[in-house]
Every structure is written in C-alpha cells, then in structure tokens.
C-alpha cells in the first residue's frame, strides 16, 4: 500500500503498463493496422483524409531515402486502377517497414490513428483497461482529485481507447489529455509544462508510470511518482524498487495516511 502525498491535487496517468496491459498495443492495435491497411486504403481512397495520410507518408518516405530498407512511395499519376493499386501497395509496404522498425513518425501515427478510430467505432477493437482502474479513479475524483492522461500516443488515440473500452465510455473520468506535443515523456520540462497547463505546481501532481526513465524525468521536475508493477512490464532493479513507491494495483494507492 502506498499513501498519496496530501499536497497532491492532480493525478497523471500513463497508459501502457499502467491503465492498460502493455501487450494491448503490440498484440491488438499494431496487428490490426498491419492486417487491414490495404483494405482501409482501398475503401477510403477517394476521401480527402485518406489522401492527406498518403501525402504525409510520401513526404516522410522522401526524408527516409537514405535509411536502410527504405520503401519509396511513387506519386499518384491518376492514370487509372492499376496506378492506384501500385501506390496502395507501396504505401502498405512502407507502413509495414516503418512498423517493423518501431518508428513513431507523425505520418505513420496519423494513419494508424484514423484506422484505429474506424476499428473502435465499428466495434472491431475495444480499449483494454485493468479492472482496478475505474473504481480507483472514481474514488479519487470523489475526493476532489483531478485525473489526467499523459501518453506518447496521440490525444485522439487516447480518447478512442477510453471512449470505446471494454468497460464502456470512460471519458468522463478524465479532466484532460496530454501527448508528446507538450514534450517527450523522458524530458523533465514536459512535466513542468503539464503543471503549468493544469494550473498547479509540479509538487501537486502524482504521476503513475511503469517506465523508470519517465519516473526520473518527472521527479526531476518536482512531480511525485509511483511505479506501477503489472504483468508483462519491464522488471525493476533492486535499487529502483527501493527508490520508488510501488503499486501492483490502483487500489494500492491510499488517499489517507496509514494508521
């Protein structure tokens, strides 16, 4: 059991390995994109959003021309169905290559986000959320705490996950969302910016994460940290176990000092 510091008024939550199984993105979301990207592009080819996704991927491909394994995307000459098929196949190959390299380019994230939006809205995918998360957040909110999400995934992707979760629409549990547009999670300045955005001091924030580099950055900014230990998360060293407060479940986080 870990006690929440009394000065904490806002709780900042990571997603992967914290609210959601770390395997969800790798085993559900990523395979969905890899298996369905060709059908998605053909179905939405004539839509401006899809064409913008392809333009961004083509622009990224031009920047990647010097990388090993680079997959080019030819221009769309609008000659006919055969040309469409060749461009689609090139985009599919490029997306598969980027994902095999675990790249996180804005162009790739944009297409993935649009595909996941469709997957969630049609019910093909539901957001994974640990059972202990919702009851705990409701208790925190009853106690007057505000709750925010901070993830490397886009704000849109965050809202899709919690808006179409296995436990229903959970968007009313959160007071706001942050992604890497405010800064990377391993940079302490990001947490200072979040505190400023929320309208509080860093010491008024408790950050829950499973990543020690993120925990270190948050602590350097003056934010309180608790490490979340879930099945499948990266193991902590003995020193890390001593350095941080550890919780196995959100229910391990007590609002009141233990007597």
Helices and strands, with pairings:
Layout (H helix, E strand, L loop, with lengths): L1 E2 L6 E4 L9 H22 L3 H16 L17 H20 L5 H16 L11 H10 L3 E5 L4 H9 L12 E3 L9 H11 L6 E5 L2 H9 L3 E5 L9 H6 L1 E3 L5 E2 L5
Parallel strand pairs: 1-8, 2-3, 2-5, 3-4, 5-6, 6-7
Helix pairs in contact: 1-3, 1-4, 2-4, 4-6, 7-8
EC number: 3.1.3.77
Family: Belongs to the HAD-like hydrolase superfamily. MasA/MtnC family.
Subcellular location: Cytoplasm; Nucleus
Please describe what this structure looks like.
The protein is of the alpha/beta class. It folds into 2 domains: 147 residues, HAD superfamily/HAD-like (Rossmann fold); 96 residues, Transcription Termination Factor Rho, Rna-binding Domain, Chain A, Domain 1 (Orthogonal Bundle), CATH 1.10.720. The protein contains 9 helices and 8 strands. It has a 6-stranded parallel sheet, sandwiched between helices. It has a two-stranded parallel sheet with strand order 1-8. β5, α8 and β6 form a beta-alpha-beta unit. α1 runs antiparallel to α3, α1 crosses α4 and α4 packs parallel to α6. The chain is elongated and about 65 Å long. The model has no long low-confidence stretch (mean pLDDT 93).
CATH class of the largest domain: Alpha Beta
CATH superfamily of the largest domain: HAD superfamily/HAD-like
CATH architecture of the largest domain: 3-Layer(aba) Sandwich
Total count of domains: 2
Q: Supply the helix-strand structural class.
A: alpha/beta
**Rounded mean pLDDT score:** 93
Low-confidence stretches: none
The 3D shape can be described as elongated
User: What is the topology, as strand order, of the major beta sheet?
Assistant: 4-3-2-5-6-7
What fraction, in percent, of the residue positions are helical? 40-55%
Distance linking N and C termini: 12 Å
Strand proportion, as a percent range, falls in: 5-15%
Total count of helical runs of at least 4 residues: 9
> How would you characterize the largest beta sheet?
6 strands, parallel
- Number of E-state strands: 8
Q: What name does the CATH topology of the largest domain carry?
A: Rossmann fold
Q: What Rg, in angstroms, do the CA atoms define?
A: 20 Å
Query: Quaternary status of these chains?
Result: single chain
- List the helices and strands in order: EEHHHHHEHEHEHEHEE
